[in-house]
Write a structure and sequence with these properties.
alpha/beta; 2 domains; 14 strands
């Protein structure tokens, strides 16, 4: 099947480069290009592309505002392709929180143009083409932060969360329901490590609790959320009297580094029945075996339902193993997690 791509970028040179590079791929067809949001909107209506690549810095309506409209009115796989998506840039995290499948920088960390990338952008497009959106059933509900604060299960020593494609958006919804004295929470989100710090800051702004990048041997405290930094280390939990974050170099687990399975397996071993495991949207099966281990250790385990997942792969794999005690829409998972309600 040929993947039909629409390129939206205000630079004629960049549109030509992207079109040339992507046209070298036998399974990708650039069906059109647009220089601004208005033209892009008309071409989306006309061609109904499988994937859209979208620049951020454009005249008139900028890429983030246009992305928000796309995801609200006509959700489809969007990859941000922009010079704005470099290390530490909040724009990247904002785009992912709005529903972009992934972000790709036009430039490498040294500032050089990085479009001749041996197919990295094409690979992202292939993954994005597998994403479907079921937003009709993702209705918002009133915040339950105060209710959650009053009813947190006192036996919870740690909450562990895993997510991938669509995960930043899901995490923003989940964590917004966590009170500022929530149980210690550790998260593995599959993401380019260049964007991890910006994602942590974006999540922190949406969450009453403090969200930060996990560092080696940090004591985990209530009211704190620890996000895996990415790169070449797995995030695990360790310790006896005091639980601590552990960053360990190693090979990929379940195809990923860091891996959700690596985190969940350590939680099952160290925390056991006093943990809660949450597996959110994502492609593949990372986290399924680990959630099963947590379930068998007596932990309360939750998987996001299909209707509110961007990609149901990871939760589906866990559910098929019988690893999830609860299957719930994203806007009700916090309640299930904090109260351990079945």
């Amino acid at each position: 099947m040929t993947i039909r791509v629409l390129v939206i970028d205000d630079s004629p040179t960049m549109r030509a480069i992207l079109m040339s590079r992507l046209s070298e791929q036998p399974d990708i067809s650039v069906i059109g290009t647009a220089s601004n949001a208005a033209d892009g909107r008309e071409m989306i209506k006309r061609f109904n592309p499988d994937v859209v690549t979208l620049d951020i810095e454009m005249p008139g309506m900028n890429g983030l505002d246009f992305l928000e409209k796309i995801m609200t009115l006509r959700p489809m796989p969007v990859i941000i392709v922009s010079g704005a998506t470099q290390e530490g840039n909040e724009t990247t995290a904002r785009a992912l929180a709005l529903g972009a499948v992934d972000c790709y920088s036009k430039f490498d960390p040294s500032g050089k143009l990085d479009i001749g990338d041996n197919g990295r952008l094409a690979a992202l497009i292939r993954l994005a083409a597998q994403v479907t959106f079921n937003r009709g059933q993702q209705a918002a509900v009133a915040s339950v932060v105060e209710q959650s604060r009053r009813s947190i299960d006192g036996d919870i020593k740690l909450i562990a969360v895993g997510s991938s494609t669509g995960g930043v958006e899901a995490l923003q919804i989940l964590l917004s329901e966590f009170p500022d004295d929530c149980p210690p929470t550790m998260i593995v989100q599959h993401v380019n490590p260049r964007f991890a710090s910006a994602i942590a800051r974006t999540l922190d702004s949406a969450c009453p609790a403090r969200v930060q990048i996990a560092e080696a041997d940090m004591p985990v405290r209530p009211g704190n959320v620890y996000l895996a930094p990415g790169g070449d280390q797995h995030l695990k939990v360790g310790g006896t009297r005091t639980l601590r974050t552990k960053l360990r170099a190693g090979e990929p687990v379940s195809g990923h580094l860091p891996s959700v399975d690596a985190l969940f397996l350590s939680v099952a071993e160290v925390v056991g029945a006093q943990a809660v495991g949450i597996l959110l949207t994502g492609m593949g099966a990372d986290g399924a075996k680990g959630l099963l281990a947590m379930h068998r250790a007596g932990a309360h385990t939750i998987a996001q339902d299909e209707a509110t997942c961007t990609v149901f792969g990871m939760p589906r794999a866990a559910i098929s193993l019988g690893a999830a005690r609860v299957i719930a829409p994203i806007n009700r998972i916090a309640r299930h997690a904090l109260t351990k309600a079945a």
